[in-house]
Specification:
Layout: E1 4-13, E2 16-21, E3 24-29, H1 32-35, E4 44-53, E5 58-63, H2 66-76, H3 83-92, H4 95-103, H5 107-110, H6 118-138, H7 148-162, H8 167-174, H9 184-192
Antiparallel strand pairs: 1-2, 1-4, 2-3, 4-5
Helix pairs in contact: 2-3, 2-6, 4-6, 7-8, 7-9
């Protein structure tokens, strides 16, 4: 099992990215929450990984935090949830946002995530509460947290998605202010100026 990769970020085209590790390019798929914490192309990057083995392919998934990977692994244990849906969930809502949806039994919020239907949402609400309790222990060891501008942008992205904006919409909202905002709150405030809150 490959636990993590450290190397140069060679390609990032959501949801795919390639990390050059000593001259070998590793292709990964990653949630959008991870993409918005990535450094510039050519920069050093460290990603936690999870390998999914199928009959026709071996697919490596990359994550910026231990918390994201732990949630991804727990989602795969839910009946009817595969890597594609798990990745969509992590792209559509933050780890904290997902936990809140489960605790509040908010199936309607979960069904807004692409690929998550009513039955899948109901299974998540039934099967995930106990796993979320265990999730805290799984991330106790911690993982490197993105710093500087990337951390600010990642936190702002997760917050706006949790407010109900679509991931692609959030990307456009944040793009003009990348590297300009002084804090997460400042970036969110700038992004929301002139934007109507979603229904």
């Amino acid at each position: 099992m490959i636990g993590f990769l450290r190397g140069k970020l060679a390609i990032k085209t959501p949801p795919h990215l390639t990390v050059d590790v000593g001259g070998v390019g590793y292709d990964l798929e990653a949630p959008m929450s991870t993409f918005y914490t990535l450094p510039a192309l050519g920069s050093d990057v460290r990603l936690l990984t999870h390998l999914v083995v199928r009959e026709d392919a071996h697919i490596l998934y990359g994550f910026g935090t231990q918390e994201e990977r732990a949630l991804f692994r727990n989602l795969l244990k839910v009946s009817g949830v595969g890597p594609k849906i798990a990745l969509a969930i992590l792209s559509g809502v933050s780890v904290d946002g997902f936990s809140t949806c489960v605790k509040l039994k908010d199936a309607a919020a979960l069904t807004k995530i692409p690929g998550v239907g009513r039955k899948t949402a109901e299974r998540l609400l039934v099967e995930m509460p106990d796993r979320l309790d265990a999730l805290g222990a799984a991330v106790a060891a911690g993982a490197p947290v993105p710093n500087g501008e990337n951390k600010v942008e990642g936190e702002a992205w997760s917050a706006l998605v949790a407010l109900g904006y679509k991931p692609a919409e959030v990307t456009q909202m944040l793009k003009p202010f990348a590297g300009v905002a002084s804090s997460t709150e400042d970036l969110i405030r700038r992004a929301l100026q002139g934007t109507v809150r979603p229904q």
